[in-house]
Specification:
The protein starts with 7 loop residues before the first helix and ends with a helix. It is globular, with a radius of gyration of 23 Å. A hairpin with a 4-residue loop joins strand 2 and strand 3. The protein is built from 19 helices and four strands. The chain is mainly alpha-helical. A two-stranded antiparallel ribbon has the order 1-4. A two-stranded antiparallel sheet has the order 2-3.
């Protein structure tokens, strides 16, 4: 039977309806919460779960959650808009397209090597800063590259979003996953880094190798003129058949410098989404001026970028609305309590594996990895101490459970927006990614077993 999934907005709307229905079926409950000054977030207090008055979400309230989800995800949505505008400016300079043409020529006869090159760039973004929404505006450029190589749209997603998500899940330094979890577990930052790096390299080797294999099997004819071999160039912009200009190197260097600036911004200056948005906006304006575009032309390019990112913004807002409904229904803590309570009576290794499964299940209604950390880690640390389980193993279970789930959960607005931008149907991506996801989870379970055995 062929798997068929409805339009992403229909799918996310159905999830909102299911969340509202669950508020009638599940008992309402809550944990007490306190503000953790070190982490700078509100966290739950272990052992304080209690039932509260029911708060079922009616049909109209569920629809009202849609604009509320947009507001709740406003910082992320505006990040997508402003990055999209900035990269539209960069794209209209022709620098990216000429760079792609030059890359295709340089790799002629060794085209598959573009996959590890691109994948490692995105994996670095995942490892350093949980790269997700930043990928969305880059998809049109990646699609040009894929077409000129004869690759499918799934390959374009697999060599960008895939390694970024894998890098995030196995990262030793990701500030939005492992660093938050380690702080909540009262572990030194970067502790267990060497162990994580070993399995990070294995995970990326697995992902990149399988992506190259898939690309080779499904490869078609490259776009005519895509490699400049016919001398005709790109019919839309013949100048892209030229080599990279000196001005292009300056523009591409500025783009790279902006991404490099993100690392100290997140790690040292505590940047959030608003600061990232500002950095990319400034980059776009400077690129426009360097390329000789007037301010009016630059502004018009931004508007075209905003228009192109509107659908992605809607998907992110719809996905966040699911969490809003569950929060209004006061059943998120109930779900978390039900998932982790059965682990108390299991042996250490079985309990660790159970944590991975529970984190995977919880990530569907709680699609924020940082939000899941502050929700679950304060509950799991006392449990792991009671079981005699290393807190480092508890953090690993969170990383592999929640982090890898980003590859396939439909409530991940960034993933749905990336797929929509690439023209890849969700069910097609699911068929492609599910075997890889299961292999990565198996690798994560091996890592956990090794960690338990060596007493990490």
């Amino acid at each position: 039977m062929k798997l068929s999934v409805p339009h992403p907005l229909v799918l996310l709307s159905a999830c909102i309806v299911l969340a509202a229905a669950a508020s009638y079926l599940l008992p309402a409950g809550a944990y007490d919460r306190i503000t953790d000054e070190e982490v700078g977030r509100t966290v739950v207090v272990a052992g304080t779960y209690h039932e509260v008055d029911p708060s079922p979400v009616g049909p109209f309230e569920a629809i009202v959650a849609l604009p509320r989800g947009m507001v709740d995800a406003a910082e992320v949505i505006f990040l997508v808009f402003l990055i999209g505008g900035a990269f539209t400016v960069v794209d209209e300079t022709g620098a990216l397209r000429r760079g792609i043409t030059s890359l295709v020529r340089a790799l002629r006869g060794r085209d598959l090597l573009v996959i590890p090159v691109v994948s490692l760039c995105f994996a670095t973004g995942g490892v350093l800063e949980n790269m997700q929404e930043e990928i969305i505006p880059l998809i049109p450029v990646l699609m040009i590259l894929a077409r000129r190589m004869g690759f499918t749209p799934i390959t374009a997603v697999a060599m960008s979003a895939g390694p970024a998500f894998v890098g995030s899940a196995f990262s030793p330094i990701n500030p939005f996953q492992v660093q938050i979890a380690q702080r909540l577990a009262e572990l030194p930052l970067l502790s267990g880094a060497l162990f994580r790096i070993v399995f990070l390299l294995l995970a990326l080797a697995l992902w990149i190798g399988m992506t190259m294999r898939y690309a080779a099997r499904t490869r078609g004819e490259p776009e005519v003129g895509g490699d400049g071999s016919d001398g005709g160039g790109n019919s839309d912009d013949p100048s892209t058949d030229e080599g990279v200009r000196r001005s292009d190197l300056v523009i591409l260097g500025l783009v790279a410098a902006t991404f490099a600036l993100i690392v100290p911004g997140l790690a040292l200056w505590h940047w959030g989404f608003n600061e990232l948005s500002a950095a990319f906006f400034i980059m776009g304006v400077i690129v426009g001026l360097l390329a000789g575009m007037r301010l009016s032309s630059t502004a018009q390019a931004y508007v075209r970028g905003f228009r192109g990112m509107a659908y992605a913004g809607l998907l992110i807002g719809f996905a966040r609305a699911i969490y809003v409904v569950l929060q209004d229904g006061r059943i998120i803590d109930t779900i978390v309590h039900a998932m982790f309570t059965p682990l108390e009576g299991l042996p250490v290794l079985a309990s660790a594996f159970g944590m991975v499964a529970a984190h995977t299940a919880i990530h569907l209604p709680v699609p924020s990895v940082s939000g899941q950390a502050v929700l679950t880690m304060p509950l799991l640390v006392p449990l792991s101490d009671l079981l005699g389980m290393s807190r480092q193993v508890t953090v690993l279970a969170y990383q592999y459970g929640a982090g890898l789930c980003e590859l396939l959960t439909p409530t991940n607005g960034a993933l749905m927006a990336i797929l929509a931008s690439a023209g890849v149907r969700y069910e097609a991506w699911l068929r492609h990614v599910l075997p890889l996801y299961l292999a990565l989870v198996a690798l994560g379970l091996v890592a956990i077993a090794v960690a338990v055995a060596v007493g990490l």
